[in-house]
Design a protein that fits this description.
Elements: H1 3-22, H2 39-48, H3 51-55, E1 73-76, E2 79-82, H4 99-108, H5 123-126, H6 131-141, H7 166-173, H8 186-198, H9 202-205, E3 223-224, E4 234-235, H10 247-256, H11 269-277, H12 281-293
Antiparallel strand pairs: 1-2, 3-4
Helix pairs in contact: 1-7, 2-6, 4-6, 8-12, 10-11, 10-12
Protein name: Diacylglycerol kinase
Organism: Fuscovulum blasticum DSM 2131
Keywords: Heme, Iron, Kinase, Metal-binding, Transferase
Amino acid sequence: MRLVPKLLLLALAGAAAGWWLTRPAPLPASAVAGLVGDAAHGEQVFWAAGCASCHMAPGAKGEAQLVLSGGQRFASPFGTFIAPNISQHPQAGIGTWSLLDLANALTRGVSPQGEHLYPVLPYAAYGKMQMQDVADLFAFLKTLPADPTPSAAHEIGFPFNIRASLGGWKLLFLSTDWALPGNLTPTADRGRYLVEAMAHCGECHTPRNALGGLETSRWLAGAPDPSDASGKARVPDITPARLTWTEDEIASYLTTGFTPDYDSVGGHMAHVVENFARLPAEDAAAVAAYLKAVPPSSGP
């Protein structure tokens, strides 16, 4: 009979250890202490990070893209996620958030209430962002309008609606290591920061495993398009194995939307082009240099 209490104690100890390892882990306040944001540079961070592409209202154009009322739907194998309102509205949006709140959401996937956020917010990439860039983004967001549209609930079922399970996902898949390690030229290094962190290109262009983690051994090797219900469409391989354009051609595509064959960009990539067209030309060139430095994929 003494075995039962021992097993129970072991089970409780295991549960406590699991809770400890997978609990939300927000940043210390010291991570942003003393940072002063530059809203002008924060606008560049805003476009590079694609904030409006996901959080503007469906179909918004022009200045309406800066009204971050949310509502766009993003299908996935785990359910449909709906972008929340991140405008400056104090109730419907994030108007009451502090810089630390924003930094925790973007780099740790933790809400101001201390809950895990779903990785549809690409904090797996944003976790590599420099805190000064987060502070600059925060300053720019403060200049944008408030909108009272309430955020819609995600359409996800059991067991994916259990946020506590995301702690295990983070333990398995979050890393601040570069997918392309080592020393790069200054231009390619800037490209690495854009591709792997702010612009989060790997979130779409890298295949995922059954748990939704990126298969970093197949970095940028292409993946199924989750928005295609037929399952036939693919996000392309953008390693040198398939993307054979020159650096100048890649940079031109990122800012004009035209391929070397004068095809035009479509789908969500059109938003990426709109964003890069607002950035310094050097950033598109940096992305092109980085993509040429990535090892070619070996898959089909």
